[in-house]
Design goal:
three-stranded antiparallel sheet; two-stranded antiparallel ribbon; 1 helix; 5 strands
């Protein structure tokens, strides 16, 4: 099964890795572009991670993010 590995690199060079389906990865990257282009007034970047027990959320201050990268991987790859 194909998943997308999304790497959020912070300005302090720490990385947050999440594995999402295609639509989740597209939504996450689109949100980042909207923040960078000024289309959103928010100063937070929200990561929604589906899990067995429900969705998990991570909020990151937008000015702490250096870049976001996504890559298609097999679910077994890391």
């Amino acid at each position: 099964m194909k998943k997308f590995k999304v790497t959020i690199t912070l300005k302090n060079f720490k990385e947050i890795l999440v594995y999402l389906d295609k639509q989740g990865a597209v939504n996450l990257v689109d949100q980042f572009y909207d923040l960078c282009s000024g289309d959103l007034d928010d100063n937070c970047f929200e990561v929604v991670i589906p899990s067995i027990s429900g969705n998990e959320y991570i909020l990151i201050k937008a000015d702490e993010i250096l870049y976001v990268q996504s890559k298609e991987v097999l679910e077994d790859d890391e």
